[in-house]
Structures are given as C-alpha cells and as structure tokens.
3-hydroxyacyl-CoA dehydrogenase (Streptomyces ochraceiscleroticus), 514 residues
Amino acid sequence: MRIRIVGAGVMGRGIAQWAATAGHTVELGDIRTEAVGTAMDFVRGMLDRAAAKGRTTEQEAADTLARIVPLDSPWAPGDEVELVIEAAREDLDTKAEVFGKLAEALPASTVFATNTSSLSVTEIAATLGDPSRLAGLHFFNPVPLMKIVEVVPGAATRADIPPLLAELVRGTGHRAVTVADTPGFLVNHAGRGLVTEALALLEETVADAPGIDRIARDVLGLKMGPFELMDLTGLDVTAAVIDTIWHGFRHSDRLRPSFLTPNRVTAGLHGRKTGRGWYAYGPEDPAPAATPEPPITGDGKRPVWVADTGPGTEALRSALATGGAVLDDGELPGDGSVALVATWGTTVAEAVAGLNLPPARTLGVDPLSLPTRRRVLAATPATDPEVAADARAVLAAPGDEADEPHAVSIVRDTAGSVAQRLLASIVSVAASIAERGLATPADIDTAVTTGLGYPHGPLAWGDTIGTPRLLTLQQALHRTTGDPRYRPTRWLTERAQLGMTLTDPGNSPFPQAG
C-alpha cells in the first residue's frame, strides 16, 4: 500500500517508521520542509540503533528507510496514494485545512484517516465534501513500540473503511480495536477509572500520593502507580483529558474531575518534564526518589480478635495464624486485644457501631491485600496509635522462617479501602463503556492491557473477583458513601443476576450507541 503521512512531528515520524517497517511505501510531508528532513534523520537513527542491537539487520534497516519518500509539499498530486494518515496539530481548523487541500490533490478513492486524540472524528469529516471517506486511526507514542491502534469510524464513515484500517493495523503486528467516536475514544476513556479515583482518595486524605502508588503497585500489580503515571504523562495533559472526557459525557459522576489538579497545573507542577509534580525529580534522575516508609515499631505480641464479617474473614484468620499471631477466640475482643475487621466496600467505623467493638482497638484489613506482598490496614480517628503499631507488626510477620516480612500500609478508614476503590472504579468505567456499546468487551480489555499496561483487562480483572462479589462491593460503596460515582453499572448488575461474566458480550438484539 502507498500511504501518505501529513505531519512530520513526533507522531508522524513514528507512524512513518511503523508503516515502512511493515513493507508499505510511505510518503512523508509537512508544511515545514525542514521538519521532514529532521524526521528522516530521526527514523534513520532509530533504525540504526535497532540494527546495532540485533533487532533488525543493516540491510532491513536500509530497505525500510528507502521506503520513506520525503515530499517537498504535503499537497503534491499522488494518483497512487491509497491512504492518508494526518498527524497535524490538534486543532479542528488546522485539520480541516489539511484535508481540504488533500481532497483537491488526491483521487476520490483515497481513504483519509486522522490521528486525532481528542477531537471528534465526525466533526473533522464534516468539513469535507465527502465525509464518508474519513475515519480515525489513533496511534500511541512511541508508535513502533505501543502496539495498539484505535480505529474510530465517524458517524458518516463508509462501512468498508474501518475493517480495511483494522486489517492494515493487524498486518503490521499491531493490535486494532474499533471504538465509537466519543470523547477519549477507548484507551483514554478507560484510563480515567484509575486516576480519577486515585485523586478522590488523595482529596479525602485516605493516604498520600506515595502511599496510594505503593498499594496500586504491590496489591493490584500495576507497573506504575497513578501518581507516578500522571507525572510521566504530564499533569497538564492528564487534567485536560479528564476534563474533556467529563464534559463530553455530560458531567458523568463516574468520571468526575478533582479540585486538586487545576492549581497544580497553573503552578507548573506537571511532573517529570518540569522537574516536579506529585514527586520531585533530579536533573539526572528521571525517576522519583523513593519515599521511605515508617518503620515497624510494634512488638506484634498483642492478641488479635477477628470479626466475622463474611467474605475475607477466613483468609484473614489464616494469614494471622500462618504469621504466628496469638488469636483471641472470644465472642468479643478481650481487654488487651486488637480487633481486626475484613472490610468489603464498608468502613471500620460502621463495623465498630454495628458490632459494638472498642473504637480505640479496632482496625480494618483489605482482603485484596492479604495474598500480596503488601497488606493494608485502615485506622479510624479513634484508633490508638500504639494498637495500630502492634496490628501493623502482626500483619508484617512472615509466613515462615524463609519468608520476607510483609510490607504493611496504614491508611485512613474509608469505604472499601484503597485497592478496592481503585479496582471498582477501573472495572466500572470499563463496564460503562461496554454498556453503552462503545467497544466490545474483548476490545476494551485488549486496548487497556496493550495501551495502559494493566496486568489484566478491566473486565477480565472484574471476573477474577466474580460478578456477585464485585456487585456486593459496588453496592456497599454506593450505600456507604451515598456518592452516585459508585452506582453499579447495568452491565455488572445484570451479569451478576444472570450468572454471566463481565467479558461475555451477551446475545443482545438491541442496537449499539456508537
């Protein structure tokens, strides 16, 4: 295929390398002729580096570069051009001008694709005489390494174009997901579940940013915590995406932004690129400095009484017994015992009131954390600090002499604790995408694991918990907080009631919203 790429910036040069590596002939043009030369030099350097590292041969690198044809003008006539991929500035007027000139220069049979990440594909297409020839083809940076591309049909896009683009993407070794033309498309929309909930937890002083990141990494298995991720992406970019998607979905509670971000953006606390964000960065150290955790100060000898609160109780008892804890088997906690409650969408304070437990000696434990390297305790404003220190020591105890001690985080009491709220939000946002028919369950999970690097797709992740238990969690979060942010989706509720999984698309005869 002969592909013309208009825009030789970061994304355009990456798309050019991607397409040429796959064997396509690529025309590369830009209104700034010098940008094309810079892009060619960059691609040459990347290919030379790949050859030096043995990822390709010198001959293959030379052949790939030879397939990229620099243009003096992006509007040059081209009867053989089958596809145009526009990677110009993220501005509707700019893109409309680009496609208007291309429509005059190229055959009517040439398919147009826009790499927009935030504009409506339908709006861009509407500026053309024939809007049916344009679709979205959204790549991620760096294009050769981020092996996911979103195929986005506009409202008027011809039916044959999305499958054609998806086949092209798959033929290069990348994965294609088809998604409706909605704010954030798929990956950016699905990614709001993690960061918006992390910001809500920080707003409520449940834990600080490093503490939330530790739990996200060690309990949920994320490669990077949400605040580290925002610093990497840039808080200015993250905040703009959050606001765009929230406004686009008519102020959906599930996507609600935080009051924390505007002032930080205004102050220039954007993350790695400004030297300071949620973390500080040194001039030669692109990674945030490790924030030390408080040492374990309790002796771990205090007896432990475990409340019978259903799911999680037996796992907590087993973990304590394996760690050598002294268990208090009384009907209520003894005078010197610490009372532990396995919370699931609820708070420690609710358990204290409902079970008549001693407020100063009662803490919560997140069952999600028990099988992981980090266990999470929740303390209330009434918790005695010495009791909390002893509870932390008890949970830190290794399972046997060969095991390392567990890390133990103490957070402020909140419905569901940190990991449960993060996971519930990740799953809920993905379920709302599926519920609206904006993408298939399989494409949602593929896009998130490939584009965001999560250990599981959000719907498959929810299935590891089980739809009935996940519904119980979200119902408890909704009831306990009263916040419509946590209202269970119809997608989850129906599947829990019908014994279906979240990844099951079902046999619905109803039309899709996209």
